[in-house]
Design brief:
Layout (H helix, E strand, L loop, with lengths): L1 H6 L4 H12 L5 H22 L9 H13 L4 H20 L26 H10 L6 H16 L3 H5 L6 E2 L4 E5 L5 E5 L2 H18 L19 H12 L10 H14 L4 H8 L4 H4 L1 H17 L5
Antiparallel strand pairs: 1-2, 2-3
């Protein structure tokens, strides 16, 4: 059969799988890069250890051997589990196309990991950052403050902020339309002060760059082109360093902060799930641990029977 002829071509099925997740699953560029890296590493291991050119012919024992080697080399469990998930998707893809007779991943289990409580900034430091810290009244200053206000005021991801377009901002409805994971769109309400800041930023952008500014994307670099992830990370790290001693200072910390503060103030968990763009409630429930800890602390401090 012709399909089995292609099956024997070195790397063909891996390339076909990557094309599948790119165009049919419509995963993000970041996720696609992670899948490709995982498959490249797996193929390199099979070739080095077993002289095996086609990963589609790998056995359960060979797959397990790779997983063991990852753990022994000190890779954290979360990263190992992501690679296991990649292989699970790959062999599931092959099975559905009848390129293999049996799934070698059936006996492979994910590693047990401890649940990490999200790192977040307390409300008071965030108030200090956004209300009391002086930002320069020029393009860069307004851009930097806009980045912080967006990440904390909407909870969007780094990639979502970088990809946000001018056309995604609805000034009339006071909402933004975000393109999230798996190319799913969601609409997020935006606080009034943020819209005022957007208008100030747009004016500063026009003054700074004129017609040379990128007309499509909202957040621009110092050169007037679409902002890049490292720029956003630098902005967040710099300004969070002014108000918190947290070791981790990243855009995702502000996403955690957004969700935690909403939950602490009584927001519905399902609503937070939709705002964050989570596919299931399980992903959002990590924030309840922080709220429960806060309730326990309040109880221990105030209740006469505590302790």
């Amino acid at each position: 059969m012709l399909s089995w002829f292609f099956f024997l071509l070195d790397g063909f099925m891996v390339a076909l799988f990557l094309e599948h997740i790119r165009y049919e699953k419509r995963l993000s560029h970041h996720t696609l890069t992670a899948y490709r890296t995982d498959m490249d590493q797996f193929q390199a291991y099979l070739k080095s250890e077993y002289e095996l050119e086609q990963p589609e012919t790998a056995s359960f024992h060979q797959i397990r051997s790779w997983i063991v080697s990852l753990v022994e080399n000190g890779l954290d469990k979360t990263s190992v589990n992501r690679k296991i998930a990649t292989l699970r998707s790959f062999y599931g893809f092959l099975l559905r196309r009848k390129a293999i007779a049996a799934d070698p991943m059936l006996k492979v289990s994910a590693l047990k990991t401890s649940k990490k409580i999200p790192v977040f900034v307390e409300e008071k430091p965030m108030e200090t950052l956004l209300d009391d810290v002086d930002f320069p009244d020029d393009f860069k200053g307004l851009r930097d403050k806009l980045v912080l206000e967006f990440l904390y005021g909407t909870g969007i991801r780094l990639a979502e902020l970088v990809g946000l377009k001018v056309a995604d901002v609805n000034l009339y409805e006071k909402t933004i339309t975000v393109l999230g994971k798996r190319n799913k769109h969601r609409i997020i309400p935006v606080p009034n002060p943020l819209f005022t800041l957007i208008q100030q930023y747009q004016q500063a952008k026009e003054t700074e760059f004129g017609p040379k500014a990128d007309p499509v994307y909202l957040i621009l670099s110092d050169q007037g082109v679409k902002a890049y992830p490292v720029l956003i990370q630098r902005i967040v790290k710099r300004y969070l360093g002014l108000v918190t001693t947290l070791e981790k200072k990243s855009p995702h910390v502000l996403r955690h902060t957004y969700a935690t503060h909403l939950l602490n103030r009584g927001a519905d968990l399902n609503a937070i799930k939709d705002l964050l763009g989570h596919s299931s409630l399980a992903a959002t429930q990590i924030y309840t641990h922080t709220t429960i800890d806060k309730l326990k602390k309040a109880y221990n401090q105030a209740h006469p029977k505590a302790g």
